[in-house]
Design a protein that fits this description.
Blueprint (H helix, E strand, L loop, with lengths): L6 H7 L2 H12 L3 E6 L3 E7 L3 E7 L6 E3 L2 H4 L5 H12 L6 H4 L16 H14 L13 H21 L4 H20 L8 H19 L21 H12 L1
Antiparallel strand pairs: 1-2, 2-3, 3-4
Length: 247
Amino acid sequence: MRPKYDLDKIKYATDAPTFEKAVDLYDKGKVTKFEEGIGAYSAVVMGTKAYRVSVETRRYDYGHCECYLGQNDTLCKHMVAVAIYAVMGGKKLSDEDKRLVSQALCSGRLGELSKSELIATKKAITADMRYIKSYEGPSRTWFAYQSSLSEGCNRLSKIVSELPVSRQTVKVLVDMLLRLDDRLCRGGVDDSDGTVGGFIEEAVQALKEYAKLDPSSAKAFNDLKNKETCFGWEEPLLDIVRNKTSL
């Protein structure tokens, strides 16, 4: 039975240090005696000693490991390594498979998206924003909710970091930021740990880099005029427009 998750799910929903350590275990063939059971996978992972590990087919972060973290109900590198094996079936991971993007950066590459690429990018943004949702659950689901916010921001960071620089893509990102802001202000998103706000600040910094590389792209910042945002993140971008106007 195929798992309900894929490598992207594991990559974007796991903290970077744990994912990197799990990849190292997988690459070095430390996941042994892998078996498929009813609703779960099991294996022996060779770490400082041999650990018996299991993860569910439905959720890779549900399972058990004999290591210290696993015994304290914390997702560990051994569980993630087994989940990677379940997805990859022992096949070699590519450099792209291993590449983590956890920060929104400017690609530094000038250019525009084709019509089909633009449509695909907008669809991907909408799909990834589903992880950034309202919170009305009990306190016991709080950490799962925070993980969902982190996953959404990680996925969006990858999109931002791979876009070419142009007025066209600035408009895409400005629209994305306004949609996120609306979720923060009126959509019931609980960002008390600053995950979404931090991503917005990173994206704003990337857009400032856009304006340096392609000054004409800054015209798209005018879409932010007269917008009331949660914490004034748009001001540095509007300052760029104002300074250009005053020259």
